[in-house]
Amino acid sequence: MTYPRNDPDMDEPIQGNQLKSIVERIERLEEEKKTISDDVKEVYAEAKGNGYDVKILRRVIAIRKRDANERAEEEAILDLYLQAVGETA
Amino acid sequence: MTYPRNDPDMDEPIQGNQLKSIVERIERLEEEKKTISDDVKEVYAEAKGNGYDVKILRRVIAIRKRDANERAEEEAILDLYLQAVGETA
Amino acid sequence: MTYPRNDPDMDEPIQGNQLKSIVERIERLEEEKKTISDDVKEVYAEAKGNGYDVKILRRVIAIRKRDANERAEEEAILDLYLQAVGETA
Amino acid sequence: MTYPRNDPDMDEPIQGNQLKSIVERIERLEEEKKTISDDVKEVYAEAKGNGYDVKILRRVIAIRKRDANERAEEEAILDLYLQAVGETA
DNA sequence: GCGCATTGATGGCTGC
DNA sequence: GCAGCCATCAATGCGC
């Protein structure tokens, strides 16, 4: 295992604080993610309550996302081909 | 946020709008989730840049999360026991 | 951890043999997979030697695979919709 | 299996066939890989049906693989040392 | 040595 | 309510 800024003269507490800060930032972000995931579930549940077929709804979302990804993919391929023929993308 | 109940007599276009609203809300939330996920990656990348071992860092996060879950679990069991013996939790 | 056929009267060596057999079958299959993976790498290397752009080649393969998956996906969705409107698929 | 060298003067359609051949060979190999992967899943499923803990089973496989790699690694180092002291490996 | 691509693991959702 | 399935996410390995 390696340690950051392996400098004997360095103030030690700062390293500890830095690590602590990193961990806390990540944990905070993960909490936010969870909150949003829960919101998504809520929306689906509500939709279900309004008579929508959740399974199909999920498919709709997935398809729209896939289409968006495809567009991005096509752009990437185009760039690749342009590079391959010596054009600047 | 409130929503109209699922009324078969309702004007159909409105339902269309409702569906559209649902899809857009979900997609919006998913985008937010992605933004946060990217933020998390950034923090890890930054930590790596500061010499931290990302793999181990992830373990730290995972362990703390597991411990938190376990504590919650223990609390729940404790509450159960307290209720079982007629105590108010 | 649970154990299979937790029967005290059972012949013990058979359990050991069964587990051994499982592990060996998996390891044998994994070896086969590795062989084939190496073959794939060889083909890419050869293609590269013939002047093909491997990165683009990989994209081609990926796109063809994606398209195949999409066709399957569309079939699945069609089935869903048919079911949703009460048709037998 | 042998292949014609990449000759710029070569008839172009043949190159097209060459590309096609490459793609088909790769796709064929990928299919084989998938077949074997499915076989592996089957074995795990069967093991599960016999009461084995799949998660642990996977660990067993992983550990044995790691150990095998380590042994190979040690052999390689040994060979290096033997060569370094003028011994034939 | 880094980034990418594949592969494996985990957790959530659906159907029985 | 649980098992199987699927989708997401992390980890390993490969190539540049």
TrEMBL record, chains A, B, C, D:
Keywords: Coiled coil. It comes from the Bacteria. One of its GO terms (molecular function) is DNA binding. Signal peptide: none annotated. The keyword RNA-binding does not apply. Pfam families: GapR_DNA-bd. InterPro entries: GapR-like, GapR-like_DNA-bd. Residues 17-86 form the GapR-like DNA-binding domain. The keyword Coiled coil applies. Residues 19-46 form a coiled coil. Belongs to the UPF0335 family. NCBIfam families: PRK13694.1. This is UPF0335 protein SAMN04488115_107159. It comes from Bosea lathyri.
